[in-house]
Each structure stands twice: as structure tokens, then as C-alpha cells.
Design goal:
By secondary structure, the chain is mostly beta strands. It has a domain of 46 residues. It contains no helices and five strands. It has a three-stranded antiparallel sheet, with no helix packed on it. The protein has a two-stranded antiparallel ribbon with strand order 4-5. Strand 1 and strand 2 form a beta hairpin. The chain is elongated and about 80 Å long. The mean pLDDT is 88. This is DUF2553 domain-containing protein. InterPro entries: Uncharacterised_YusG. It comes from Sporosarcina globispora (Bacillus globisporus).
Length: 79
């Protein structure tokens, strides 16, 4: 049996993870390369996302924590 070399397009399967001033490239759990970025490279992110100190954040709205009115109540509801 003879094996022939063939190129397979895996572009849509690649995941990039920020790591200091580079983006590490992964195929499933295997690191396959990296992209080096100069210090201060700007990130162009969509609405509700921002980059700060080599991290990417999502701005979300969360419900405010309500203050509990009663403390030291027993299981029967007596306070």
C-alpha cells in the first residue's frame, strides 16, 4: 500500500489563545504554532468586548444583589 501526501484545509478548526505578546494556535488540544504581536498591538473587538493588559473582557449586565432584610431567621420563618 502506498501513501500519498495531501493538504487538508483545517483553518476553521484552529483556535487562538492569547499568551503575553503572542497568540498560541491550537488544533484541538495540540499547540501547532504561534503569532507574535508587537507590544501595544490594538485589538479590534465588537460591541461589549474590550481588551486590557493582554486579556479580553466581555461587558455584561447582571442583576444587582438585593440586600437581605432579615437575618438570623429559623427554618420556620421566625426572626
Amino acid at each position: 500500500m502506498t501513501l500519498n501526501q495531501q493538504k487538508i484545509d483545517i483553518t476553521n478548526q484552529i483556535v487562538g489563545k492569547l499568551n503575553n505578546n503572542q497568540i498560541d494556535l491550537y488544533l484541538e488540544n495540540e499547540k501547532i504554532g504561534q503569532i507574535n504581536m508587537p507590544e501595544g498591538t490594538p485589538f479590534n473587538l465588537t460591541h461589549h468586548f474590550e481588551a486590557d493588559h493582554q486579556k479580553i473582557y466581555q461587558n455584561v449586565s447582571v442583576p444587582a444583589k438585593t440586600q437581605e432584610r432579615y437575618t438570623d431567621c429559623d427554618e420556620g420563618g421566625w426572626c
